[in-house]
Amino acid sequence: MAITAEALPEVTATIADRIFDQLRQAIVEGEIPPGSKISEPVLAARFGISRGPLREAMRRLESSSLVERKPNVGARVITLTSEQLLEIYVIREALEGMAARLAAEHMSDAAIADLKRLLAQHRNDVAQEEWQAYFQKEGDLDFHFRIVQGSGNRRLANILCNDLYHLARMYRCQFGMKSDRARDALKEHELVVDAIAERDGELAEWLMRRHIRASRKATERRLAAMRPSDT
Amino acid sequence: MAITAEALPEVTATIADRIFDQLRQAIVEGEIPPGSKISEPVLAARFGISRGPLREAMRRLESSSLVERKPNVGARVITLTSEQLLEIYVIREALEGMAARLAAEHMSDAAIADLKRLLAQHRNDVAQEEWQAYFQKEGDLDFHFRIVQGSGNRRLANILCNDLYHLARMYRCQFGMKSDRARDALKEHELVVDAIAERDGELAEWLMRRHIRASRKATERRLAAMRPSDT
DNA sequence: GTCAATATTATTGTCGACAATTTTGGTTTC
DNA sequence: GAAACCAAAATTGTCGACAATAATATTGAC
């Protein structure tokens, strides 16, 4: 599933755009490991292109905060720290809470019915234990993705889908993330959808925020367990 | 006042970065009017540079959603619609509400004292009617800026300061924006700061959200008054 | 006279090469 | 032996030129 806010424009015309997509995927999935220096000549050679389009793609990656760049020195893939990951959760709590509120107001009945079907599918998956952690989490993103789309606020959707979700996915690829929270998360998803179906925006926001907060706390616990020597 | 999240790096080394700043300012302040096509050759000539750095700057402007770009066609300065402006208010309500909550938890006593001094200054300005609407609004942005910085969440601050605040400022330059809400807004600011001073994060968030919602409603009324034939 | 097809022009996209800065390696000196 | 200084190599930043695509103007046919 491609996570983009706009309708995906089939074949992207320009090389820079295509390279941007490929590089983003490579970075998010860890193929280009965090902290590694990005050499323009070798990357250009690897993709068989010139440095011009590559630099334009890098500028976009920089704006997405997937690479850090120092003038006259070069670019490195970012290394997500625990603090930065938790910062993202806080922002998602604010934005997706608002998105749930808006979705309750704007989402069409048909879209809500679709969403319910998706949750039924997830419920089935969880019941049958057919959820490798990875796929479960992708399903989780799928749920959040639909709520955000349902908000009807395109800029809100862009912020989440173009940047934050990629960063979240990058973190999940970096650490193993076999969530033992699947059952709880699913229950929380159902509550959110119920509130949306009843057009109760205030409740939907409250439930979504609590859901993301719970995910953040679970992540905090996991981080604390991984590195007990850290601050 | 330069609105940037990072500590401004004095003289930006590379041309592309400098051009990005200049172009952003020119677009935000309306020097390059909304909807106008951006021709790479003429702009490059105007700045006395080559097209390479210019294109890199354009890619960053695209990421900031200040220009829209179609492959093989070119880039145009965006034209903020009423709907887009209101979308921004909604996002600010979510993000700055969260920022106020975090500020109540993280801001230092010294920073809060500074903030109170700033509000006292504003109060004085308003009492003396020394507030051309424009300056008042800049003061407004200054207030919001400090809260966001006080949140301690760097990514949150980046989203607001690097993108949303520029868009808000662009709109204000586009339409005259002589706010008659200065007195009310100031009162609302004071309530937010009081809540922060008392370390009441929940209340601070609630007050900040109500404040931004009130600003949005005022803008909605102004928009409705300007174009009564619109939907 | 109007519409359509075609040729021309202009603009964007891409490339290779040069200049400037940084990093690295070596040499010298204390 | 270590530190500092200098030189060489590599990398980034910038530029001008070519290729490909889209917009425009022209010409022809009906």
Entry summary:
Chains A, B: InterPro entries: GntR_C, TF_FadR/GntR_C, Tscrpt_reg_HTH_GntR, WH-like_DNA-bd_sf, WH_DNA-bd_sf. Chains A, B: It comes from Thiorhodococcus minor. The first copy, chain A, is built from nine helices and three strands, in the order αβααββαααααα.
Question: Would you mind describing this structure in some detail?
Answer:
Chain A is mainly alpha-helical. The first copy, chain A, folds into two domains: 70 residues, Arc Repressor Mutant, subunit A (Orthogonal Bundle), CATH 1.10.10; 145 residues, Up-down Bundle (Four Helix Bundle (Hemerythrin (Met), subunit A)). Chain A is 69% helix and 4% strand. Chain A has a three-stranded antiparallel β-sheet with strand order 1-3-2. In chain A, a hairpin with a 3-residue loop joins strand 2 and strand 3. In chain A, helix 6 runs antiparallel to helix 7. Chain A is globular, with a radius of gyration of 19 Å. Chains A and B meet through helix 3, helix 4 and helix 7 of A and helix 3, helix 4 and helix 7 of B. Chain A binds a DNA duplex (30 and 30 nucleotides) through helix 3. Chains A, B: It comes from Thiorhodococcus minor. Chains A, B: Keywords: DNA-binding, Transcription, Transcription regulation. Chains A, B: GO terms for molecular function: DNA binding; DNA-binding transcription factor activity. Chains A, B: This is GntR family transcriptional regulator. Chains A, B: InterPro entries: GntR_C, TF_FadR/GntR_C, Tscrpt_reg_HTH_GntR, WH-like_DNA-bd_sf, WH_DNA-bd_sf.
What are the defining features of this structure?
homodimer; 231 residues; mainly alpha; Arc Repressor Mutant, subunit A; Four Helix Bundle (Hemerythrin (Met), subunit A); 2 domains; 3-stranded antiparallel beta sheet; 9 helices; globular; DNA-binding; WH_DNA-bd_sf (chains A, B); GntR family transcriptional regulator (chains A, B); DNA-binding transcription factor activity (chains A, B); GntR_C (chains A, B)
